[in-house]
Design a protein that fits this description.
The chain has 294 residues and is α/β, with parallel strands linked by helices. It has a single domain, classed as TIM Barrel. Helices cover 38% and strands 14% of the residues. The chain is built from ten helices and ten strands. Strands 3-4-5-6-7-8-9-10 form an eight-stranded parallel beta sheet. It has a two-stranded antiparallel sheet with strand order 1-2. Helix 7 crosses helix 8. The longest helix is centred in the middle third of the chain and has 16 residues. It is globular, with a radius of gyration of 18 Å. The protein starts with a strand and ends in a 27-residue tail after the last helix. The structure holds NADPH dihydro-nicotinamide-adenine-dinucleotide phosphate. The site of NADPH dihydro-nicotinamide-adenine-dinucleotide phosphate has 29 residues, from helix 9.
Length: 294
């Protein structure tokens, strides 16, 4: 089946649902992505910092699909920020993915304490975009203030801002800032599936009774209900799984609709508590990681 698409601010289309591979072990990535591509996913989200871009590339090479049938997204890690460093980060990523052009390359985090370096990295993305090596560029975990500082200093508006969004943490201000600038919000941890670095004080959204009741009524699973909530509110979502049955389940969301009341009931579950790291405390020292050459 063909997946609905969203149109980025430069006219490029991205499937409304993608497949994430954070915490997918490098030696399991090829298989997970192969299953996803067989299932029908046509957008894969990886990152240099996940150390599994090579597995994504292998699955793509073996899938028997034309290169332009799959939308590939990856991220530059903070230790590769800087103009020349980020140009080189593209070479590393493209080499591991086995492609000449990457559909979407994004900055993984803002470095609020070294914003000039963040801007230099983004200018390298602009150059790669201008040269046709990228079809679109974007950012991740940029809060409204980070976006404002970026937009003041650069010329290409990011196509995507990939941020944490799930029923327990909706970030309305960040979603509104993205919308105001014509940036598509891409939801990470879309089914709230991970508990990150600190205790966010709640159990999995998959076990939430409000979501469970809606799921029972529409004859779908809690994960499917949450993914539908994102799509119906205009967000792109990138659920991760290494389990073939769940990879299929998360894709099977195009044959039902939630009502406005359902959407509002899920909106009301927001706790305001972030599961991932505070975007304002990201530094290269704290998140030191050397990204290997291709
Ligand atoms: P998700 O919300 O996608 O949840 C993934 C977890 O839920 C896994 O433990 C998975 O288990 C489980 N799961 C998946 N499908 C189902 C299902 N249908 N029923 C029950 N459990 C299920 O969280 P992620 O944090 O992985 O986020 C998704 C993607 O977002 C990442 O892979 C990555 O691409 C991106 N991301 C980006 C970040 C950033 O800073 N930019 C940070 C975090 C994520 P199993 O695999 O065992 O099946």
């Amino acid at each position: 089946m063909s997946i609905p698409t969203l149109t980025l601010n430069n006219g490029v289309e991205i499937p409304a649902l993608g497949f994430g591979v954070f915490q997918t072990p490098p030696d399991e990535t090829r298989e997970a992505v192969a299953v996803a591509l067989q299932t029908g996913y046509r957008h894969i989200d990886t990152a240099a910092a996940y150390l599994n871009e090579r597995g994504v590339g292998e699955a793509l090479a073996q899938a028997g699909l034309a290169r332009d049938e799959v939308f590939l997204e990856t991220k530059v890690w903070v230790t590769d920020y800087g103009y020349d460093e980020t140009l080189h980060a593209f070479d590393k990523a493209a080499g591991k993915l086995g492609v000449d052009q990457i559909d979407l390359l994004i900055l993984h985090q803002a470095l609020p304490g070294e914003f000039d370096l963040t801007i230099d990295a983004y200018r390298a993305l602009e150059k790669l975009y201008e040269d046709g090596k990228l079809r679109a560029i974007g950012v991740s975990n940029f809060m409204p203030e980070h976006l404002r500082r970026l937009l003041d200093a650069t010329s290409v508006v990011p196509a995507i801002n990939q941020i944490e969004v799930h029923p327990y943490f909706k970030q309305p201000e960040a979603l509104a800032a993205n919308a105001e600038h014509g940036i598509i919000s891409q939801a990470w941890s879309p089914i709230g599936g991970i508990t990150f670095y600190r205790d966010s004080g709640h159990t999995s959204a998959l076990e939430n009774p409000v979501i469970g009741d809606i799921a029972g009524r529409v004859g779908k699973s809690p994960a499917q209900v949450m993914l539908r909530w994102h799509l119906q509110q205009g967000r792109q979502a990138i659920p991760k799984s290494v389990t073939p049955s769940r990879i299929a389940e998360n894709f099977d969301i195009f044959d039902f609709e939630l009502t406005d009341d359902d959407l509002a009931a899920i909106d009301a579950l927001d706790t305001g508590k972030r599961g991932g790291p505070e975007p304002d405390v990201i530094t290269r020292e704290r998140f030191a990681l050397t990204i290997p050459e291709a």
